[in-house]
Amino acid sequence: MEDCVFCKIIKGEIPSEKVYEDEEILAFKDINPAAPIHILVIPKKHINNLLEVKDEDNYLIGKIYKTINKIAKDLNIEKDGFRVIVNCGKDSGQEVMHLHFHLLGGKKLGAKIIG
Ligand code: 5GP
Ligand code: ZN
Protein backbone atom coordinates (compact mmCIF):
# COMPACT_ATOMS: atom_id res chain seq x y z
CA MET A 1 0.00 0.00 0.00
CA GLU A 2 1.46 3.30 -1.08
CA ASP A 3 1.04 5.46 2.01
CA CYS A 4 1.36 2.67 4.58
CA VAL A 5 4.23 3.33 7.01
CA PHE A 6 4.99 -0.37 7.48
CA CYS A 7 4.96 -1.06 3.71
CA LYS A 8 7.51 1.77 3.44
CA ILE A 9 9.62 0.10 6.14
CA ILE A 10 9.40 -3.21 4.21
CA LYS A 11 10.57 -1.43 1.03
CA GLY A 12 13.38 0.29 2.93
CA GLU A 13 11.95 3.76 2.26
CA ILE A 14 11.76 4.35 6.02
CA PRO A 15 14.68 3.02 8.09
CA SER A 16 14.11 0.49 10.87
CA GLU A 17 16.15 -1.63 13.25
CA LYS A 18 15.45 -5.09 11.87
CA VAL A 19 15.71 -8.15 14.08
CA TYR A 20 14.41 -10.77 11.62
CA GLU A 21 13.54 -10.93 7.93
CA ASP A 22 12.56 -13.57 5.40
CA GLU A 23 10.51 -13.57 2.18
CA GLU A 24 7.20 -13.24 4.01
CA ILE A 25 7.88 -11.66 7.40
CA LEU A 26 9.74 -8.68 8.85
CA ALA A 27 10.42 -7.94 12.52
CA PHE A 28 11.84 -4.63 13.75
CA LYS A 29 12.11 -2.57 16.93
CA ASP A 30 9.17 -0.35 17.82
CA ILE A 31 10.15 3.32 17.53
CA ASN A 32 8.39 4.13 20.82
CA PRO A 33 9.05 1.08 23.01
CA ALA A 34 6.59 0.29 25.81
CA ALA A 35 9.01 -2.25 27.35
CA PRO A 36 12.79 -2.93 27.21
CA ILE A 37 12.06 -5.37 24.37
CA HIS A 38 9.33 -4.19 22.01
CA ILE A 39 9.42 -5.76 18.57
CA LEU A 40 6.84 -5.46 15.81
CA VAL A 41 6.39 -8.60 13.71
CA ILE A 42 4.57 -8.02 10.44
CA PRO A 43 3.66 -9.88 7.25
CA LYS A 44 5.24 -8.35 4.14
CA LYS A 45 1.85 -8.76 2.49
CA HIS A 46 -0.29 -5.71 3.32
CA ILE A 47 -3.25 -6.79 5.46
CA ASN A 48 -5.13 -3.96 7.20
CA ASN A 49 -5.77 -5.81 10.45
CA LEU A 50 -6.96 -9.08 11.96
CA LEU A 51 -10.44 -8.64 10.46
CA GLU A 52 -8.92 -8.78 6.97
CA VAL A 53 -7.14 -12.11 7.48
CA LYS A 54 -8.36 -14.69 4.97
CA ASP A 55 -8.19 -18.50 4.87
CA GLU A 56 -5.28 -18.17 2.44
CA ASP A 57 -3.33 -16.36 5.21
CA ASN A 58 -3.58 -19.24 7.70
CA TYR A 59 -0.04 -20.47 6.98
CA LEU A 60 1.34 -16.93 7.22
CA ILE A 61 -0.29 -16.23 10.59
CA GLY A 62 1.02 -19.51 11.98
CA LYS A 63 4.48 -18.67 10.67
CA ILE A 64 4.34 -15.27 12.37
CA TYR A 65 3.75 -16.96 15.73
CA LYS A 66 6.61 -19.40 15.06
CA THR A 67 8.82 -16.41 14.18
CA ILE A 68 7.86 -14.73 17.47
CA ASN A 69 8.87 -17.97 19.21
CA LYS A 70 12.29 -17.78 17.49
CA ILE A 71 12.83 -14.08 18.20
CA ALA A 72 11.93 -14.54 21.88
CA LYS A 73 14.59 -17.27 22.11
CA ASP A 74 17.14 -15.22 20.15
CA LEU A 75 16.62 -12.30 22.56
CA ASN A 76 16.79 -14.63 25.59
CA ILE A 77 13.37 -13.75 26.98
CA GLU A 78 11.82 -17.20 26.60
CA LYS A 79 12.61 -18.14 30.22
CA ASP A 80 11.25 -15.00 31.87
CA GLY A 81 8.33 -14.73 29.46
CA PHE A 82 6.80 -12.17 27.17
CA ARG A 83 3.50 -10.89 25.83
CA VAL A 84 2.10 -10.73 22.28
CA ILE A 85 -0.54 -8.11 21.47
CA VAL A 86 -2.53 -7.46 18.31
CA ASN A 87 -4.60 -4.29 18.22
CA CYS A 88 -7.58 -4.22 15.87
CA GLY A 89 -9.72 -1.20 15.17
CA LYS A 90 -10.76 2.00 16.90
CA ASP A 91 -11.32 0.85 20.47
CA SER A 92 -7.96 -0.96 20.56
CA GLY A 93 -6.18 2.24 19.52
CA GLN A 94 -4.73 0.62 16.37
CA GLU A 95 -2.65 3.40 14.79
CA VAL A 96 -1.00 1.67 11.85
CA MET A 97 -3.37 -0.11 9.46
CA HIS A 98 -0.95 -2.90 8.57
CA LEU A 99 -1.36 -6.08 10.62
CA HIS A 100 1.34 -6.24 13.30
CA PHE A 101 2.11 -8.31 16.36
CA HIS A 102 3.68 -6.52 19.32
CA LEU A 103 6.26 -8.69 21.13
CA LEU A 104 6.87 -7.20 24.58
CA GLY A 105 9.27 -8.35 27.27
CA GLY A 106 12.45 -7.69 29.18
CA LYS A 107 10.68 -6.72 32.39
CA LYS A 108 7.73 -7.81 34.53
CA LEU A 109 4.82 -6.47 32.50
CA GLY A 110 1.88 -4.73 34.12
CA ALA A 111 -1.71 -5.79 33.55
CA LYS A 112 -2.03 -2.98 31.02
CA ILE A 113 0.91 -2.44 28.72
CA ILE A 114 -0.36 -0.45 25.77
CA GLY A 115 -3.01 2.26 25.84
P1 5GP B 1 -0.66 0.07 17.09
O1 5GP B 1 -1.11 1.09 18.11
O2 5GP B 1 -1.15 0.38 15.70
O3 5GP B 1 -0.97 -1.34 17.52
O4 5GP B 1 0.91 0.14 17.11
C1 5GP B 1 1.67 0.80 16.14
C2 5GP B 1 3.08 0.80 16.66
O5 5GP B 1 3.93 1.18 15.60
C3 5GP B 1 3.32 1.78 17.80
O6 5GP B 1 3.81 1.08 18.95
C4 5GP B 1 4.34 2.76 17.23
O7 5GP B 1 5.31 3.17 18.18
C5 5GP B 1 4.98 1.97 16.09
N1 5GP B 1 5.44 2.78 14.98
C6 5GP B 1 4.72 3.74 14.30
N2 5GP B 1 5.46 4.27 13.31
C7 5GP B 1 6.66 3.63 13.35
C8 5GP B 1 7.87 3.75 12.56
O8 5GP B 1 7.98 4.54 11.61
N3 5GP B 1 8.90 2.93 12.90
C9 5GP B 1 8.82 2.03 13.93
N4 5GP B 1 9.91 1.30 14.18
N5 5GP B 1 7.71 1.90 14.68
C10 5GP B 1 6.65 2.69 14.41
ZN1 ZN C 1 1.21 -1.88 4.62
Secondary structure: elements and pairs:
Elements: H1 5-11, E1 18-21, E2 25-29, E3 37-43, H2 58-74, E4 82-85, E5 101-105
The protein binds guanosine-5'-monophosphate (5GP) and zinc ion.
Zinc ion (ZN) is lined by residues 1, 4, 6-7, 46, 98.
Report the strand count.
Answer: 5
Into how many domains do the coordinates divide?
1
Helix and strand content put the structural class at alpha+beta
Beta content comes to 15-25%
Top-tier CATH class: Alpha Beta
Main sheet characteristics? 5 strands, antiparallel
Here the CATH topology equals HIT family, subunit A
> What is the rounded Rg?
14 Å
Head-to-tail CA distance between termini = 26 Å
Structure description:
The protein has helices spanning 5-11, 58-74, and strands at residues 18-21, 25-29, 37-43, 82-85, 101-105. The protein has 115 residues and is α+β, with helices and mostly antiparallel strands. It has a single domain, classed as HIT family, subunit A. Strands 1-2-3-5-4 form a 5-stranded antiparallel β-sheet, covered by helices on one side. The longest helix has 17 residues, at 58-74. The two termini are 26 Å apart. The model has no long low-confidence stretch (mean pLDDT 95).
Which key features would you list for this structure?
alpha+beta; binds guanosine-5'-monophosphate
